[in-house]
Amino acid sequence: MDTIEPGDVTGPGAPEREPRRFYWGWALLSILFAAWIGYALTGYFSPGESKEKDFTQERVAIRLTGVYLAALRKSGQTEAIEKVEEQYGKSLAEIRKNLFEERGAQAGAAEIVLVIDALENRPPDPQALEKLAASKDTDERMFGEAFQPGLEKTRAQELSRKLDADFFERLAGAQALEEGGLVERSSRRFGLVDRVSDPETYIPVVAVMLAAPAIVVVGLVVLALGVVFHLSKAFKPLGTPLGEISALDADRLALRVALALLCFAIVPPMVVAFFPPGTRGSFSTFTGMLVVFGAIVFMLRIPLVGVADPWPKLVGRVRPAWQLVGLGVLGFLANLPIVILLAVGSSQLLKNLPAPSHPVTEILGRGGAFGTIGLYLLVSLTAPLIEETMFRGMLFPALGRFMKPVAAGLLTGLLFASVHPQGPILWASLAAVGCMACYLTYMTGSLVPALVMHSVHNAAIVTLALALAG
Fold first, then answer.
1. Which residues of 362-379 are buried (b: 16+ CB within 10 A; e: fewer)?
2. Cα torsion angle, 290, 295, 300, 301, sign
3. Is the whole-model pTM more than 0.85?
4. What is 327-377 written as a DSSP string?
5. Confidence category of residue 16, pLDDT binned at 50, 70, 90
6. Are the beta carbons of 63 and 167 closer than 8 angstroms?
7. CA 325 to chain centre
8. d(CA 137, CA 50)
9. What pLDDT digit, counting tens, does each position of 283-317 carry?
């Protein structure tokens, strides 16, 4: 008969030894998150002298009220016109005052100052003209040239044809025609807006102004019903698609998230570099992101610690599809009021910080229909696929192994927000998107609702931006 010496755990009947955990996956993931957040914050607070600031908010404010004023003038609502003209004048004066010191350093500020001067029938600002004339960007030089007094007629016609990408360029093109003497100069205040505002221009703006409040109201109703439904405990949470996992499983998922982050950081710039400089934009970025997603799906099939995690395993159940898709749409609607409230609140509390910006704003409206299609594919297909796979498919269940679902969802949402380039002002609202995605995933046992919610959210943001940017 065999004897077992004290301390011997290898003999017959000995308990099965648990696999040894590895913590370096978590360490690598922590280092990558810290580096990514630090890099994003550095770029946010110190963009560098050569980097152009984002003036989207000012441009949208000028266009939104200007087009609305033009629509009122066409309808002949005299009393309303006077009020809007007064408000518009005050708004333009405030914007010009805030950008006046930057007009010699930032091309975007110079363009806005020139447009405001033209709207107010004032001579163009010399320093703004000088800044744009010295620009290396052809479009910026043409924009500034459109405001130069005494333009030749042929050049004015050429500029009017070429400057047609958005509302601001159309204003510049209309001003070029006036400077070239091809049309009679309008003596009416803000008359330049009337020249470039037609139904094709102001219908999207009016549609957004009418639809947005209605969608928010619907969102509030869905949110209230969702809270009541949740508190009633009529629906038992199904947990994450991976179900109960071990500590070793969590370690493996942490390592996979770290590898996916590395892929996400390295691959897109390499893919975009293969495109000729003049063709780089939304479609090239979409291609890069598609390659990233393919690489992540391939990586998930490679066993780590002897275990593979194929993508369908992370997604979980996909039926009934209509129900899961519907829950994603409802999740978007319910989350919309929360996102807006947090965005407005943060912008007021952190108003001294730089305005939020995103690289996507630099390619809005570029490349025509082809570029717009690429933009939608980028933000509503590849971005949700990659981010939901990383954050809700792997990180959320990994953190959930060591903390309660609410804490894991909050931490996942905050990390999701902090790696985005928009900056701290939008962290709260982005975290709300991430937390809603975690909630949908945990309640349904599927990644599908989170994917749909994320996709609809991004598509709505881009649609709004395109409608307001003109």
1. ebbbbbeeebbebbbbbb
2. positive
3. no
4. HHHHHHHHHHHHHHHHHHHHHHHTTTSPPP--GGGGGTTTTHHHHHHHHHH
5. low
6. yes
7. 22
8. 13
9. 888 889 999 999 999 999 999 988 999 999 999 99
In whole angstroms, what is the distance from residue 395 CA to residue 257 CA?
A: 7
**pLDDT for res 54:** 67
Cβ-proximal residues to 380 (8 Å cutoff; 6+ apart), any chain: 455, 456, 458, 459, 462
Tokens for 403? 């903390």
What is the Rg, in whole angstroms, of the alpha carbon atoms belonging to the chain? 27
Interatomic CA distance for residues 241 and 439, integer angstroms: 12
* Token pair of 412 as six digits: 């996942």
Q: What is the amino acid identity at position 147?
A: F
| CA–CA dist 101, 97 (Å, integer) | 8
In 3-state terms, what secondary structure has residue 457? Answer: helix
Q: Please answer whether residues 332 and 453 qualify as being in contact, where contact means their C-beta atoms are separated by less than 8 angstroms.
A: yes
Unique residue bearing structure tokens 């609305």: 68
What's residue 366's pLDDT? Answer: 56
| Residue 469, pLDDT score | 64
Q: Which residue has the tokens 């470039």?
A: 196
Tokens of 388: 């939901």
Work out the angle at residue 194's Cα, subtended by the Cα atoms of residues 191 and 198, and round it to the nearest 5 degrees. Answer: 175
pLDDT for position 384: 96
Q: Taking the CB of residue 63, how many other CB atoms lie within 10 A of it?
A: 25
